Amino acid sequence: MAKLILKNVFKRYENKDKKKKKAVNPLAVNNFSLETEDGEFIGILGPSGCGKTTSLRMIAGLEDITDGEIYIGDMKVNDVDPKDRGIGLAFEDYALYPPLSVYDNIAFNLKAKNVSADDIKKEIDRIAPMLKVEELLEMRPAKLSGGQKQRVNLARAIIRKPKLLLLDEPMSHLDGKMRQVLRIELQRLHKEIKCTTIIVTHDQLEAMSLADRIAIMKDGELQQFGTPLEVYDNPVNEFVAGFIGEPPMNINTVKVEKTDKGTFFKFVDADIAIPVPDRYLPVVSEGMKVRLGVRPTDLMIGDENSKGSDAKISVFENLGEERKISFRVGTEFLTLVTPDEKRYKQGDPVKLEVKADKTHLFDVETGEVIRAK
Ligand SMILES: Nc1ncnc2c1ncn2[C@@H]1O[C@H](COP(=O)(O)OP(=O)(O)OP(=O)(O)O)[C@@H](O)[C@H]1O
Question: Residue ranges of the ABC transporter domain (predicted)?
């Protein structure tokens, strides 16, 4: 295992279409810096086109770097051939060789390095149980399910005892249940081989459940790098806040209003007012507009003595284990999720309460978090 370090890495793809004067997003990766610990499991997470795969391909050496430095352990790898970087790769398309058996697919790279047949067998005997492919070794890839193919793919990636394991959406072709199974097995595998691992995914659940730390990207730029809890509890900007969490965080524009009853966040597009938590009083001022973020699980319906805001229910959905209650805010909804079994109907008046210590504030212009004093 080895640390991975990215120092101010840039990737600019040449815009080959001369007719187009300007590329839509010429910088695929923009000043990306990141340093892992030895043996850490890192998730690179972000929406489609944010530069995740490009970053992974640069780490692997499959793509040139426009600027910056990449280190694997002590070795600067900018100009090192992919096969000499000590990496194992498993991409979303399994790329197994159809005419070869599973055994020969896993053995392929070792054979190419002239490892003896005995040593290859020893390695495959070691790896096959870890990935539960012992029974598949004589089969051809065409006979395997998607999940089995991905296990073989992973076996092939780790057989060379890589210092760094790079996984690009390894579960994206699998159905929900299979993804869950493979996710748990990846966790176990990582504990067993203790290899620094980078997984690229657009699935936040995958990143949150697997990774020690997550790098969240948008438009080629790193937004935040932290543990799953840090990015969930302390998002640095509105993008991260809205991207992490399901259902997503409610984020609405509110205006600070002072009344004789106290200071409130008054929703701009709805008749809802929420008391400004004390910790925010030093950083807001009368009339100021901010973006208020509240997770659906941090909103509650109060009882008859509640001092919460008056609100009328727009939609009530029973989701089995929990209830989803929505309040109209302009053209959008403020959503609350609760395990409380009480039923409501459209138009019911309720008192809406907020867990004050769980609110987030973002700058209307920049989207950056406004921290409480
Ligand atoms: N070979 C290429 N030539 C030109 N532009 C490219 C090339 N590969 C990627 N890009 C552009 O670089 C940006 C980042 O792409 P990348 O594939 O890294 O994103 P991603 O986050 O992995 O997306 P996805 O989740 O859809 O795979 C995109 O704007 C994409 O169009």
Answer: 4-244
Ligand 1 and 28: CB distance under 6 A: yes
Looking at the structure of the chain, the number of domains it has is 2
| Ligand 1 in reach of 309 Cβ (< 6 A) | no
Question: Which tokens is 130 given?
Answer: 């870890």
- Does 13 sit in the ligand 1 pocket, CB within 6 Å? yes
Q: What is the pLDDT along the chain (373 residues), one digit of tens a residue?
A: 789 999 999 999 876 665 655 555 579 999 999 999 999 999 999 999 999 999 999 999 999 999 999 999 999 999 999 989 999 999 877 789 999 999 999 999 888 888 999 999 999 999 898 888 999 999 999 999 888 998 899 999 999 889 999 999 988 878 888 888 889 989 999 998 889 999 999 999 999 999 999 999 999 999 999 999 999 999 999 999 999 999 999 999 999 999 998 999 999 988 889 999 999 999 999 999 999 999 999 999 999 889 888 899 999 999 989 999 999 988 888 999 999 999 999 999 999 999 988 999 999 999 999 998 7
Could you tell me if the CB of 210 is within 6 A of ligand 1?
no
User: What order of strands is seen across the sheet that includes strand 299-301?
Assistant: 299-301, 349-354, 309-312
42 backbone dihedrals φ, ψ, rounded to 5°: -115, 135
Neighbours of 142 (CB within 10 A): 9
Distance of CA 341 from the midpoint of ligand 1 (Å): 45
The answer to ipTM > 0.90 is yes
* Closest C-alpha to ligand 1, atom 6: 13
Q: Are residues 191 and 259 in the same domain?
A: no
- Letter for the amino acid at 62? L
Q: Which residue lies with its CA nearest to atom 12 of ligand 1?
A: 28
Residue to substitute in 13, 14, 198 for testing ligand 1 pocket (most ligand atoms within 8 angstroms of CB): 13
- How many other CB atoms are there within 10 angstroms of residue 163's CB atom? 19
Residue 79: give the domain boundaries: 4-236
Distance 54 CA to ligand 1 centre (A): 6
Same domain, 23 and 140: yes
On whether residue 270 sits in a domain, the answer given is yes
Those residues with Cβ within 8 angstroms of residue 358's Cβ, 6 or more apart along the chain or in another chain: 294, 295, 298
